[in-house]
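Dissemination and training. As part of the outreach component of the grant, students in the summer workshop were shown how a complex can be specified as a set of sequence lines and then modelled as a single object. The example used during the hands-on session is reproduced here so that future cohorts can follow it. Participants entered these lines:
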Amino acid sequence: MPDIPVLELRGITKQFPGVLANDNVNLTLMPGEIHALLGENGAGKTTLMNILYGLYKPTKGEIFIRGKHAEIHGPTDAISQGIGMVHQHFMLVPVLTVTENVMLGQETVKSGVFLDKRTVARQIREISAQHGLDVDPDAYIKDLPVGVQQRVEIIKVLYRNADILILDEPTAVLTPQEVEDLFEILQSLVDKGISIIFITHKLKEVLAVADRITVLRRGKTVATVTPAESTEQSLAELMVGRAVELTVQKGEAVPQEPVLSVRDLVVKDDRENVTVDGVSFTLRAGEVLGIAGVQGNGQTELVEALTGMRQVYTGSIRLLGKEVANATPRTVTEMGVGHVPEDRQRDGLVLSYPIKDNMVLNTYYRPPFAHWVVMDEEKIIEAAEKRVKEYDVRTPSIYATAGTLSGGNQQKVIVAREFSRPNKLLVASQPTRGLDVGSIEYIHRRIIEQRDSGTAILLVSTELDEIRALSDRIAVMFEGKIVAVVNAADISKEQLGLLMAGAMPKDMPPSAVVAQ
Amino acid sequence: MSVAAASQKLILSTSEKRRRTIFGVIFLLVGILIIWFFAFESKPGQLTTFGMNPGFASNAPTIPDLIFPTQPVLYALGLIALFMGGWQLARGYKSIGAMFGIVFGLFVLAFLAWAARDKSFNMVGMLQATLVRATPIALGAFSGVIAERAAVINIAIEGMMLAAALVSVVVASATGSLWLGMVAGIITGGVLGLLHGVMAIQFKVDQIISGTAINILATGITGFVVKRFFIDPNINDKFNHSQIFPPIQIPVLSAIPVIGPILFSVNVLPYLMFIVLIALHITLFYTRWGLRTIAVGEHPKAADTLGVNVFKIRYINITLSGMIAGLGGAYFTIGRVGQFDEAMTAGRGFIGLAAMIFGKWTPIGSLGASLLFGFADSFQQKIQILIPGFPSEFLLMAPYIITMIVLAGVVGRAIAPAADGIPYEKD
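and obtained this result:
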């Protein structure tokens, strides 16, 4: 391996008003290396990469590319220096084709005027073949699954002849299978001489794929280590700055009377497709039922139907003995159902409202927060202050809008709101998606606390580790049906993975109830 | 994936079924209407004459007018609509939109045949008037397309047209050159477009507010000029009295019967409108500028990360938008009457925006919608000659009712560019 780093960041500092996002950060990327940048939400990973890509100007510090000092004033400079970035939220225009998205900004033209889509499509096919990035150049982005869209993003970078590839949280939106495919692609890119910076907060992935790991904490570089000398535990401690429990401590569940009973439920999505196709299950007080499944197998619609947010087509939902199919969300809430929604920004918060109002969104119209039609501002502030402290929401003030919080803190606001009243049933959908280890640990502990105080918990997650860590029983959803219900202790990760992929493992445990 | 696709197809067919039924019933109703109101109301032996020659000098040879027995033709038209309704209910047409257009056409034809029974109606004259009246609407719609495709809402088209109408007639009167007048009108629109751009892009003013401000500004200033200066006959005669663009007979093409007089014997503005149409269609869908425009309108951040200058594209487009609106404004004075009156654009800019939405933000669709509006406009005028006392307001309402139906998503949903109206901010 040659000794000149392909990229070197020296003493990068970025001061935002009131926040020091990067504090004297150093990073060296060697040629043909996968370098993981690890850190909690808000540790300054994305800021650092945006500086490298020219989207932000650093307050201090220097960038060297292939040993030479580089000035990067915008994406155009970054691209011309061979830097390509795959953003966490894809930068693809849905109504345009793959070819059009790839060529945008660097269009090939014929006769000096007209777009030459055929040539670009051919180039895309060449890049596809070379790196195993299978994609149809004529497909429209809006018709492609997320995993394929990500490949388009990587092709965009390669089309611009970049040899430094930055991936910002690339696995956050992928299914386990897509993650494996991505890792294979990354390996093949590195073999062809491309250097990769891989931003993440997932410890397992870092250990699986990185050559070296740089850990950021509160804007500072804490350490650069190799996977060989690290464990999940040691990395977590570097990230958070204290010892972290990666596994949830929980005792035996004591299931009591049934709280929720769903029978033959059929629900359609917005495009009128049947996405929940005859689902039945029973949930008891004091237990956690995990709904496992790859994203898009009907979990979203199931949860929306249970919480009154979506029309039920046929079937019955009985909550505490009362039929609640097609009840309004408020009726369901008032019967004692807490809901941590999957899309926290869309369904969980009013982003433009202050935290204090978001804290009481489910009960703002009732005493003690309102008397008749008048809201009691003092009581709301009092409750909000208490909840912010109790749930460790990190915010300058309860008057800051929810939109200004980081993802983890937004989730804590929702959890604080939903957990602060006695719940009979708690529906938690992807409760820790996109959160860092510290917040995950915290929210997991709260969920088990709720269970032990006698709440029935329905946990929906696409993360196998989360499902296995929290659930007492696991129901696997595949293409709208529950294909198996099984005691969590009896099933291996591999068996669960097979069930989620629609296959039936050979030796299912005796506790399993398998659908026909 | 395959299962999802299959179930999607299944479900699509249920919502399609509902649509099929709704349209089938509409077609049947139209058929019944034609027979009930028109066929029953006319007597056997009555004849309808449709004039096939323009009422003005033209290169086209005179051809015989279309004369037919009223009642049988009405029965036939009604039966065709009934048959189409039945077919639609039983089997369903593939392209409902086109069939809806045909049934609508049948109804209009039946109405004309009935209204012109025992009389003569100049069909070619009405169709030519349709094109002429559609011209400013279409230019307004193109102006909207070019701006909104880059995500700048231009509600100020009306005001830009009004200002350009005034400036072009003043310049044309003072210099005696219609072409200079037109250029002045285009520049006026461009300047107002740039002003809207500075407010909307630079200062991130709400685009509806900014556009409304320009509309009010244009109404106010032009009104002031009329009341303060043109009230004096001397000034009026010198600065508000120009020639108008004469009709241009395109060689060969204008000699084709029916089509020649309708399409190829108009003045320069409809021709320019077609040139703008073709240029806009080609540049928007086949050039670098078009690709960048669409990207900036749909996902500006994505364009920005690829080195596309979002602000530059938006400035260019809103200025071009103003210039096209300015050309549309010139039509009202130097293209038609040679003199400016207060508020003479009479909402055509807004109708252009409706045509843009109806046309789903595409140049060709916008022209189609503009022609529909232009048809309604000329139709209601002619019908007043045919049936004195007919409340033409109802006919004038028709295009707007159709627009509302379209916007409600019955004929097919119209989707605006995703970032339409949202100022772009770099973090």
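Chain B has 16 helices and three strands. Students were then asked to discuss how this feature might be tested experimentally.
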